[in-house]
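Hey,
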Amino acid sequence: MSTPDREFAQTESQRAMDALLTVPRALWVNHPQVHIRANSKPAQLFVAQQVGLDIPLTIITNDPKQARVFVLQPGESTVYKAMSQSLRLEDGKALFTGLLTERELATLDLVRNTPGIFQRLVPKAYEVRTTVVGHKIFSGKIDSQAHSETQIDWRRRPFDIDKQPIQLPYEIEQKLHKFMDAFGLVYGAFDFIVTPQGQHIFLEVNPAGQYMWVEAATHLPITQALADVLSGGPT
């Protein structure tokens, strides 16, 4: 499609979807208004703290001076995150989480144009993608440290990484249930860092995150769980 045609098609589709909000007692996975609230990374970090999950040391700011003070702490490394999930700058390019180097520090004044998320770099033993469907929790271990390209952000090579089924600690799973309840989510795809000391660090949740690549690698029955929720079966 041309750009105007694509924008027209997207707008028309959105108007049709908006009409479904008037349907009473409909099951949404997830409700659009719930999705909007839960898709905010600052809101996610706030709620994660409220339910007792550990998060990286973080500032969210568009003040270059504040950002520079945070970034230039001696002996510390900092990563930058965009507010938007999988933000695409142009066709074929995405803005991944990145380590701030001398090159980025030289352009830090640009942050005044838009708020950004700055976080301390957390040491990783491995990472975990956890998919929550209703009251069921499915977790896959991501060996993100096996490749240099994926050590900061595994999404650079998501299908080349070894993924194994893994069980989160009971207390972490209980906190995830509280997190889901706080937003009213039915489905969520969570990302965690596990440090060399075994500490689980919450990074974010995607309320509409892809899961089939995890199911294909781990054989976890995520699709069945979704079917159960949608059909009113066991959750």
